[in-house]
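Re: the multi-chain job from yesterday

Posting the exact lines I submitted so nobody has to dig through the queue logs.
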Amino acid sequence: MVRGRISRLSVRDVRFPTSLGGHGADAMVSADAMVSADAMVSADAMVSADAMVSADAMVSADAMVSADAMVSADAMHTDPDYSAAYVVIETDAEDGIKGCGITFTLGKGTEVVVCAVNALAHHVLNKDLKDIVGDFRGFYRQLTSDGQLRWIGPEKGVVHLATAAVLNAVWDLWAKQEGKPVWKLLVDMDPRMLVSCIDFRYITDVLTEEDALEILQKGQIGKKEREKQMLAQGYPAYTTSCAWLGYSDDTLKQLCAQALKDGWTRFKVKVGADLQDDMRRCQIIRDMIGPEKTLMMDANQRWDVPEAVEWMSKLAKFKPLWIEEPTSPDDILGHATISKCHNRVIFKQLLQAKALQFLQIDSCRLGSVNENLSVLLMAKKFEIPVCPHAGGVGLCELVQHLIIFDYISVSASLENRVCEYVDHLHEHFKYPVMIQRASYMPPKDPGYSTEMKEESVKKHQYPDGEVWKKLLPAQEN
Amino acid sequence: MVRGRISRLSVRDVRFPTSLGGHGADAMVSADAMVSADAMVSADAMVSADAMVSADAMVSADAMVSADAMVSADAMHTDPDYSAAYVVIETDAEDGIKGCGITFTLGKGTEVVVCAVNALAHHVLNKDLKDIVGDFRGFYRQLTSDGQLRWIGPEKGVVHLATAAVLNAVWDLWAKQEGKPVWKLLVDMDPRMLVSCIDFRYITDVLTEEDALEILQKGQIGKKEREKQMLAQGYPAYTTSCAWLGYSDDTLKQLCAQALKDGWTRFKVKVGADLQDDMRRCQIIRDMIGPEKTLMMDANQRWDVPEAVEWMSKLAKFKPLWIEEPTSPDDILGHATISKCHNRVIFKQLLQAKALQFLQIDSCRLGSVNENLSVLLMAKKFEIPVCPHAGGVGLCELVQHLIIFDYISVSASLENRVCEYVDHLHEHFKYPVMIQRASYMPPKDPGYSTEMKEESVKKHQYPDGEVWKKLLPAQEN
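And the result, structure tokens for all chains:
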């Protein structure tokens, strides 16, 4: 049963120095830089080493450094420190249950999101959880339509990321109190209650409350069987772990070989920085995986529209299933094949304009479960398969709940559906994702799966955690 | 000549308690609240009184309170404290010249924008101004495409507002060093140099560098005459000062009568909260201004698409020239007649989709002069008249430069063109706008006109300025 009044909200800036491998690799050439290489080894090498071992135990020590250096680089984000604004809310219920929520960021700017979470805090504090979830639409709108704060959004950028972190924590708290993982909370929820969580503002020309209810009621048929199926087989995933930009060809081959051995059948490759380089890397992967397995491409917003057309005509021979974010995420008429967008209004138009063939939800860019529900329902109405964005910090942990719910209660189909997976930083979470036979196995622990290990948070808090205390002086030199 | 290295960047959170009139008005019923009414009188009454006097010297004291109470309320932003993140940059040139830039906000959340400005500061500090303006496109892209920071945008929301504030300060500094107002700096600038300020990323499918150059070169013809004309007659304005939501009918009539007396011929009315109320207020205004004068309407994103259609079919009989922001600013396919958007990519699509008949630039939501240039040029290509958004804090001061430049060097037409004007808070600026015969007279002081009076900044800094030190304890009670 839902209980307690929100008595505390804290938010921390947690950063993992994923860009530093690069500095470390460069470091070998100068004495000065050796300091930062050392710092990396003592602070974070275990983390990266662990992460790498599960992906590719066979890679040589040298390859590990260069792979780690580029672990997350793409054509637009060349030096990310995977980070999170980490929100914890507590109640006065004295049951020891905390709601933990994150939004994912790339390092710099996390402090801006933290600042925005604090600006939203007064909407959460001293509220009864019962009142929040009893009128979740109203609460959602309060957060997103604050008469002063909405000016610096609305429902986009920093403020919307902060909204997601706060709401993710509320959903985690709610699910934990109910003793269920979020996906199961959603699956068991009455369709009317589900609909009451959604803000239909700006989307009623495409999806009304009645439409949503009808879809959810139809989704009740066969639900039990699909739940059983999910628990037995999991939700199909694809891997982005082996083809970031900047991997050497040898590393790419080794990682790809290992992934094939681990049972992966779908692979995503980052493209967009250099056409010749893309052609060579795509050729290597296609040769290794053979003509039957699936290859996706992601340009991370690198191109203008004419450039995208030209570039993709060259890459078409490698038979990609999709090209992801070829251009600006704001460019609806630029016809992305798959796109992660910042709110339901953008998704609505992409569907209206028939501008995408796959739809990519994001657990932190959209306003948590609430806004994702509206997008899942619109996708169902247009019969567009949803293939979530994941990776980063905790995105896999969060989005598995949404996509498993989608299959059981909304789409009832696995055709052309697949959820991204990146084997990275899961070791910092108390309830990390479980992948079996290239599928997400439904989590069983109550909550939304992004409670972090307190030790990890403390170590990686920016700028005062142990990791950064060592790294920052070295970086400044 | 351009000179100096940026040696200092400071940013302050400046808020004007424009929402407090409302509290003051309510205050009369309780002893507690009298404190806040008193506080308002001592802190800000002079400001609001001054502002009101110029608009309507005839209004009674009571009417002044209620008018002030609602001075800036619309259907979505019901209690704004007009505010600014105020950036000042200094150089080591020892000439005493500072660049001042703002972005406009509504109170809460200004601290988030301030935080984002600080996150951008390292891109500006220690740069030679010569190098910045020598490769302004590169500098613009550095600010907007920072590999880590762009994740929390890109080019939208908090980060883009912060970018605007920083770049507005750079333009102010540049123009002051050249001894020219920004509009004149632009008018005198070689077309190639102008084009080098623009980032064409994501818009080349509609506007290439060559297109831009061609438009600007054509704009050279007749430039001298148009400049003379502007200096003599100014740029046509319309007033939003008299028809905010919540004015009593008496106040509305008095303000409207005074505006007619002052020579205004174009009037904007806020709509969207209550249809019956809108009908009555539109009737009053149309009756007063007669059938020939121009009436515009602004719904401030209040409606869903079907609602907008229904509502406007009822308001059509008052013959509005346009309906502004009927729905979400992200809804390109929702067919706004006029829209203020967050970046050039959204404007590009609105033009491509023929979704607007007027285009509304904003000096603080877009990335300063640089991004506004690209939008002015695209509007010219599609032959859509530009009618800027203004009001707020300093928006009139800024945008006059852009629109005067547009007339002289780009559009060469005044047909269907008119720039918003709101008579509010100008007294805090060192170089306030000058309105004559309902037109913006071109500013003559060097710079971008948003240097604030230091005394105003100090008094209104949040939360430590004199005004807030008095108000905040009263609000907490």
